Amino acid sequence: MTMRIVSGPAGRGLIPRSLLAVICFGLVLLLVFCQTGWLRPLTYQLARAAAQADLLHRVRSWQTLTGEHFVVKFLPQDRDVAPLVLQAAEAAYAPVTKDLAYAPPGRTTVVIYPTRKELNASFGWSAQESAMGVYWGGAIRVLSPKAWVEGKDPAEIGRVFLTMGPMAHEFTHLVLDYKTCGNYPRWFSEGLAQYEELRHGGVLWDDPAADFTGELYSLADLERFSDLPNQSLAYRQALSLVQYLAASRGEAGLKKIIAALGDGAGFPEALAAAGITSPAALAAGWQTWLAGAGK
Q1: Distance between start and end Cα atoms, the chain
Q2: What is the model's pLDDT at position 4?
Q3: What is the pLDDT of residue 9?
């Protein structure tokens, strides 16, 4: 893996903010009027490219570390951990692209934010949000390992970030998004990202609020993923559903679902490609699996 650190220019970026605003407004109009048919993937890709261009403009003066598949942007205070973030990203590349049978074009941008406040501010989020990483608009944003990993030893920080950090999770979101042009239920993306994270990193975040002994969300509920009051339960159910798909249909079945979504099929049709006749059949099979050893 090759690495190269450079400092970005302090001057203006390639796209003036005024022009970028006009482009974004035009893309929003396209998205409103072109949500069906062959235009939808095109407008989705254009909107994603505009979001990525806006992010790159905002971090244009940040330092840069370039690897084989990723470009890491960071501020001087994170110069010592930037190689660790790049190492974790590169470690996630091969297994995730193999599992999803797709490699995104070019190098993926990863932006390191020194504090949680700065990460949240990049999205306009409140200070209460506690994400360690976020995929959005064709790029990955992560909280600096120094902001959440205890200890000062670089080797220990690197080990913890590699095994418990968000890179495999967020890169899975990115690969699925690029392969399908956003054609997936949110719960499926979250479940798949956790599945890959657990499969290759061994990380399963445990939360008492995600207990399956109470009332569970239906698939119809999970379609409103972001609005559900118990987010811990929603995430745990999403993972469990993907685990069920892998257990009942195998890794080949998961790939068939993802491939069908990439071809523009709706989620019911994508399930059918893996031999599941309907979302109702998925829910019923999952419930039966849960009653056995699926928990």
Answers
A1: 39
A2: 45
A3: 35
pLDDT attached to residue 67: 98
pLDDT in tens, 95-113: 999 999 999 999 999 999 9
Q: What letter would DSSP give residue 218?
A: P
Residue with tokens 């006009």: 22
Helix axes 39-58, 17-33, angle to 10 degrees: 160
Tokens coding 226: 């972001």
* Tokens encoding 89: 């990203």
* Contact (Cβ atoms closer than 8 angstroms) between residue 158 and residue 86: no
How far are the Cα atoms of 129, 210, 211, 219 from residue 214, in angstroms, in the given order?
26, 9, 7, 16
Q: Give the number of residues written for the chain.
A: 295
DSSP SS3 for 5: strand
Bridge partners (DSSP) listed for residue 142: 112, 133
Burial 70-80 (b: 16+ CB within 10 A, else e): bbbbbbeebee
Q: What is the pLDDT of residues 154-203, one digit of tens each?
A: 888 888 998 899 999 999 999 999 999 999 999 999 999 999 999 987 77
Burial class (CB in 10 A: 0-12, 13-18, 19+), 208: exposed
Domains along the chain with CATH numbers: 60-178 (3.40.30.160), 183-294 (no CATH)
Please identify every stretch of the chain with a pLDDT value under 50, giving residue numbers as ranges.
Answer: 2-15, 34
* Alpha-carbon span 27 to 39, nearest angstrom: 12
> Structure pTM?
0.85
Q: How far is CA 58 from CA 49, 73, 124, 125, 228, in A?
A: 14, 11, 14, 17, 32
Residue 129: C-alpha distances to residues 87, 119, 143 (Å): 26, 9, 12
